[in-house]
Amino acid sequence: MNNMRAIDRSNTTHDIKISSKDVRVSYAGTEAIKGVDVDILDKAVTAFIGPSGCGKSTFLRCLNRMNDTIDICQVTGEIKLDGVDIYAKSIDPVQLRAKVGMVFQKPNPFPKSIYDNIAYGPRIHGLTKNRAELDEAVERSLRKAAIWNEVKDRLDAPGTGLSGGQQQRLCIARAIATSPEVLLMDEPCSALDPIATAQVEELIDELRQSYSVVIVTHSMQQAARVSQKTAFFHLGEVLEYDDTQKIFTNPDNEKTQEYITGRFG
Amino acid sequence: MTDATAEGGATPQRSSLLELDERTRKRNAAEQRFKLYGIGAIAVGVLALLFLLITILINGVSAFQQTFVTVEIELLEERLDPEGNRNLDEMRKVTTFGYNPLLEAAVAAKIEALGLETELTGGALRALLSGGSASQMRDAVLADPALVGQTVEFRFLASSRVDGYMKGRVTAETVERDRNFTPAHLELAVAMVERGTIEKRFNMAFITGADASDNRPEQAGIGVSMIGSFFMMLVVLGLSLPIGVAASIYLEEFAPKNRFTDLIEVNISNLAAVPSIVFGILGLAIFIQFAHLPQSAPLVGGLVLTLMTLPTIIISTRASLKSVPPSIRAAALGLGASKMQAVFHHVLPLAMPGILTGTIIGLAQALGETAPLLLIGMVGFIASNYPDGVASGFLDPNSGMPAQIFEWAKRADPAFYERAWGGIIILLAFMLTMNILAIILRRRFERRW
Q1: Which of B334, B345, B346 is closest, CB to CB, to A66?
Q2: Other residues' Cβ atoms within 10 Å of the Cβ of residue B249
Q3: Average pLDDT over residues A112-118
Q4: B interface toward A at CB cutoff 8 Å?
Q5: What residues in B contact A66, CB-CB < 8 Å?
Q6: How far apart are CA B399 and CA B232, in angstroms?
Q7: Which of A87, A109, A122, B137 could be A159's S-S partner, Cβ–Cβ 3.0 to 4.6 Å?
């Protein structure tokens, strides 16, 4: 498995998709992120690990400007998506979020049918011209999220009626349906049982083919299993950012070593 | 960890689970006492409600029945249409005074036919009937001139005294002090009741009819003021729902959280507690004295009630918007929906049941409000005319149901008092309907997430 990964890695192009420089986030004067520089690669999975409250989720939410929705939150520094500063005045966060999709910690399907859940994104962005195209987009997204076979007979059933793992894959399918370039996942498996977790992880690995995926996780095993790059966050700073294999076998930083061996956190 | 063992000097005391210790007993007793208080409180509430409902029913149900007198009247042509050509313009010249002699003659004939004897004659006989009887005859004749010359059976409302006797309100003793209605009248009425000429029937006119002047309580109905209430509710619904919902959505979802919005928020809550009479005087100052809108018009009443209902709707709408889980907003925003799309596509539909319930409760409250109507002149006159159309429904002087009830309750004649109770029954029926509607809508729109 590890060998396979190594080959994979050498084969993928490692263009930088998102670059960040000296990103600082403060909530009403308290600094939650203190100068983070992380470059996220295209067509790879980047994992953010670290103890609770270290700022991983906050940083993730900077990448699609979800922090804008919190009044007291202030972001400084520079984050570039394909070389474009996403915090520039001329950038509309709504347009940005169509390019940078997000999957949340708790599965949050809309209280509508499975079909409408998936179709919502394409509808509001006008991605499809007619009903047939929309049907096709829905099927494609559900297939990509590996849930098509389970729900194809009940697309009209409410999305909230699915099991937790199915709901989370539905949310992933929903995020994919808007054809984003980057997929942000905020602890996508923390509310799921081990089997559902395995399914989602497998899915993440497949999504890497087409998207740049950023995942925040509390599970180090998960980070090791699914990611190619790992950033270790501690007290609002990135202490170490390197290939996943290196982080988990031979980290440079002492704190990283302590964290991954379970001595704190 | 080591600290805990070092400090934990108190060794656990062994006690039997089979007997209750002092603390547990006290705790259980306190819980029992609290339950009893709760049951007591509910019992008081239920008793009060039962008492209220029973009193209302006992006092009000009689208003739905009215005493009628059946009389056959010969509509003499020489009196009603002296020209004999059935020309309506000519016939209109005969006022109700022209009909009175026919009425008196008919009642006298009826008494004779029944084999009764009385010292009463002429105009005194009319005291048995409602003051509106002559105009009832005139209306019938003008509607169908062909009746002239025939003998027609009329069912007239009995006077409020006869009605009062039938309902136990008027007795021989009270009649002694009455100037218009003598013991001889009562004697005659009793005999006519026995012969079946005077009888009690269901009185639809109470529900559909118009108010009547002080000396004709038997004619008064709540119908016209019901229409007034209806037009007021149209104004309230049409204004307070969109304004209230828009204001709440803005405050809850879009407005920046700063001192100014905090101030607005506090003041909306305060407005909900402002006495309604204050809104009444505000409406008087703004809508009538400043904007010169017509007095006593349901439009103005509706505007005032809108002001009063807005805080209720805003508060309940904000509460139901707040109760929509933030994850739904995050999901929509994360997909690249704009804030407005997130609100209108996802948050609002989920908040709908709460908004509708709040609106209907607010409307029900507005429907029952009396005090503001006092100040803008929707009481103190006889709401006797049905509006001609929609515009006149909004702009012509009218009353509202609660104002009509208030008006009846303050009139001297006890016959009006009975109508006030009857009006309350109708008002409560409307409230109940609206509340049931609120529950049904809530059930209908409620979705789980």
Answers
A1: B334
A2: 21
A3: 93
A4: 256-257, 325, 327-338, 341, 345-346, 350, 447-449
A5: 330, 333-334
A6: 10
A7: A109
Q: How far is A2 from chain B (nearest CA, A)?
A: 33
Distance from CA of B331 to the nearest CA of A (A): 7
Neighbours of A133 (CB within 10 A): 12
Q: What gap in Å lies between CA A57 and CA A150, rounded to an integer?
A: 31
HEC secondary structure over B259-289: HHHHHHHHHHHHHHCCCHHHHHHHHHHHHHH
How far is A101 from chain B, CA to nearest CA, in Å? 6
- Indicate the pairing of strand A30-36 with strand A73-81: unpaired
Beta bridge partners of A182: A100, A212
Q: Which residues contact B206 (CB under 8 A, 6 or more apart)?
A: B63, B64, B66, B220, B221, B222, B419, B422
Measured in whole angstroms, the distance separating CA B168 from the mean position of its chain's CA atoms is 26
C-alpha–C-alpha distance, residues A77 and A257, integer Å: 29
Chain A residues inside the 8 Å CB shell of B256: 71
What does residue B173 show for φ and ψ, rounded to 5 degrees? -70, -45
Query: pTM here?
Result: 0.82
Tokens of A66: 């979800």
Cα–Cα distances in Å, from A85 out to A37, A39, A64, A70, B247?
14, 14, 12, 20, 35
Contact A124 B447 (CB under 8 A): no
Say how far apart CA A176 and CA A101 lie, in whole Å.
Answer: 7
Q: Among partner residues A99, A104, A121, which is closest to B330 by beta-carbon distance? A: A104
Contacts of A111 in chain B (CB under 8 A): 328, 350, 447-449
A182 pLDDT above the threshold of 90: yes
**Residue B391, pLDDT above cutoff 90:** no
Minimal C-alpha gap between B333 and chain A (Å): 7
pLDDT of residue A13: 55
Complex confidence, ipTM = 0.86
Q: End-to-end CA distance of chain B, in Å?
A: 43
Nearest to B336 among A111, A125, A160 (CB): A125
Nearest CB neighbour to A111, from listed B256, B329, B449: B449
Contact assessment for residue A237 and residue A206, using Cβ atoms and an 8 Å cutoff: no
What letter would DSSP give residue B379?
S
Question: C-alpha distances in angstroms, B75 versus A222, A260, B8, B87, B415?
Answer: 103, 110, 109, 16, 31
pLDDT in tens, B183-223: 888 888 888 988 888 899 999 889 998 888 888 888 889 99
Rg (Cα) of chain A, in Å, rounded?
Answer: 18
Token pair of B274 as six digits? 């402002």
Backbone angles phi, psi at B210, to 5 degrees: -105, 165
- With CB atoms and an 8 Å threshold, state whether A110 touches B256: no
Two tokens at A121?
């994104």
Give the one of A66, A124, A175 whose C-beta lies nearest to B337's C-beta: A124
Q: In which band, very low, low, confident or very high, does the pLDDT at A1 lie, cut at 50, 70 and 90?
A: very low
Short-list B353, B299, B296, B297, CA closest to B323: B353
Mark yes or no for CB contact B327/A109 under 8 Å: no
Could you tell me the two tokens for A257? 């070593």
- In chain B, residues with a C-beta closer than 8 Å to the C-beta of A103 are 334
3-state secondary structure of B138: helix
